[in-house]
Every structure is written in structure tokens, then in C-alpha cells.
Amino acid sequence: MKHLLVCAGVLACTGVSAHGSAAPADDRAAEVLVMARAALGGAKLDGIAGLSASGNFRRLMGDREIEGELTVELAPPGRIRRTEHVGAPGGPSFTRVTALNDGEFWSDGTNRGGGGFVARLGGAGEARPPSEADRERFQQMQQRRLQNELNRFLLVWLLRSDTPVTHAGRAEAEDGSADVLEVRRDGASPVRLFLDSATHLPVMLTYEDAQPRMMGRRGRTGPPDPEEIRRRMAEPPRQAAFELRFDDYRSVDGVKLPHRLTQSVDGTATEEWTIDRYRVNPRFKSNTFSKP
Fold first, then answer.
1. pLDDT band at 26 (very low <50, low <70, confident <90, very high)
2. Number of other residues whose CB lies within 10 A of the CB of residue 116
3. CA 27 to CA 201: how far, in whole Å?
4. 291 falls within a domain
5. Which range, of 9-13, 104-108, 155-159, 177-181, averages the lowest pLDDT?
6. By C-alpha distance, which of 267, 271, 249 is closest to 36?
7. Cα(1)–Cα(203) distance, rounded to whole angstroms?
8. DSSP secondary structure, 143-166, as one string
9. Would you state the torsion angle of the CA atoms of residues 148, 96, 101, 153, taken in this order, to the nearest 10 degrees?
């Protein structure tokens, strides 16, 4: 499927059209979903009320590469908690938690031994802390991104969507093909899920979103430049093409789940997450998704 994945991000490159009559597309989508559900675990998918995935990640941020641990916990339909930990034993470390609890978003960060910094806007001689409007705008952006991430995980891991799924066509290549399912939400670009025609497993998901902003730093280890922060926040966000690829499927409690996820932005690999542990229907603590 390698050649397929290289070109399938844009349906036009394979001659597939995303347009057509709605009824046949919906019928074909239903057929594809039945086969995909059978491949992932069949009726066992219906019994999943919660899922947890943990492992190590590597991420490119500008000219730097960071490594850490990532845990994603979710309880459909509306709860997710994402915990990232970056640091070395005995050295500086940073833990970031973001969560969505049925519409209530919250985040928390803990910095140990790293000194940290406070972002300030404005140029030299006029530095100022972010305003309440800046903070509110940033929080809304975080909430929107986390909600979209929850929707994507539910679609890939459990084949669940609260928005109608249509069949957008097939992506063809010399070494394989994929059925392409599409989910459209109001005000958002379409999300396309590629399912291997032979195994019926999800192999890739594509969508467009605002490109993460990389802030310039004072030296390789210094804090972000306040002037750069001010300039970047004043710029309108640039849309970028995201690709998420899934492989290394293994059975966990009768459900097939991918153990490696890789992300590319505008064709450049930016992140890899190697999952070493899934928990199906874990017993979450009563405050797992609640704001502390």
C-alpha cells in the first residue's frame, strides 16, 4: 500500500471523484463499514465504552525533535483526556494535560526543574502578557482541536461518527487500493478515511486544519522570542494538509487496533506515536475527565 498512501491524500491523483448521487454513496459506505467492522472486531466494537492508549512519541518542532510519552483516554461519545510527558529521569520535565468532558474543556501543565517562561506579547520595550481575549481565543482553539481529535479517534478505532458517512470513491495504485469514506461537518473541511480494500482496515486519514505555529527562539535553548509571538498571533492561521497513517495492527481483547500512528503535514513527516499498551473498557477514576 506504500504507493497508494503517497498519492491518496488528494483523490484527484487517482482519478477518483468525491462527487456523485447521495443515495448510492451512502449505500456503498454502509457496505464498506460492515466489512471494516468485521475486520476490526465485529460486535465487540459495540461493547466498548472506553479505551486507553499509551506509548512513546517523537515529534518535530521546527528544527528540534522532542521525545516523550503520550496517553490518550476516551469514553464515547464526548470525553477525552490527553496527557503528554516530556523529560529525562532526574532532569527537567514537563507534563501537559488537556481534556474534554462532554463539552467542558480544561487544561493543566506542570513544569519540574526547567525554569519555564511566561509568554508576553509586543516588541522590545512594550512586552505585555496575553490579554484575556488572547487567552480565550487560544482556549477555544485548543478545545476545537481536541474535539476534532476525539472525533478522529472514534472514527479510526471504533468506526463511530455522529455525522453521516458517505463513500467518496476508491484510491487505486499498482500495489493495492482503498475505499475512501468521507465525513463532513459544518464549518470544517471533510475528513477522509482510507480503508484497505483487501484487509478492510483503516490505513490513513486525511483532513485540513490550521498549521501549528512554530515560535522563533532566542538561541537553540532560549524561550520563544516575544516579538515573534506577537507577529505570529497577528497572522491569520494557514491551512495545511494533514495525513494520519495507521499500521502494526494487533488484536487486543478481540479488537484489532493500530500500534503505530504517524502524522505528516503538507507531505512532511512531523510525528510518530508507538503505542505499547491499550486498555479496552478500563475502569476510569471518577475524576479522570473532570476539571481539577
1. confident
2. 11
3. 19
4. no
5. 9-13
6. 249
7. 9
8. HHHHHHHHHHHHHHHH---SS-EE
9. 40
Q: What is the CATH number of the domain that holds 96?
A: 2.50.20.10
- Distances in Å between the Cα of 136 and the Cα atoms of 105, 130, 141, 142, 230 are 12, 10, 9, 10, 16
* Residue 148 Rama label (left phi>0; alpha psi -120 to 50; beta): alpha
pTM given for the model: 0.80
Q: Where are the alpha helices (DSSP H) in the chain?
A: 2-7, 22-40, 132-158, 226-234
Domain, as residue range, for 66: 2-280
Give strand pairing partners of 167. 181
Number of domains in the chain: 1
pLDDT computed for residue 175 by the predictor: 73
Residues counted in the chain: 292
User: Does some domain include residue 290?
Assistant: no
Phi first, then psi: what are they for 248, rounded to 5°?
55, 55
In a domain, 285, yes or no: no
CA distances, 207 to each of 2, 30, 159, 166 (Å) = 19, 21, 17, 15
| Beta strand spans in the chain (E) | 51-61, 64-75, 79-87, 93-101, 104-112, 165-173, 176-183, 191-196, 202-210, 239-252, 255-265, 268-280
Confidence at residue 220, expressed as pLDDT on a 0 to 100 scale: 41
Tell me if 286 is assigned to some domain: no
Per-residue pLDDT tens digits for 257-272: 999 999 999 999 999 9
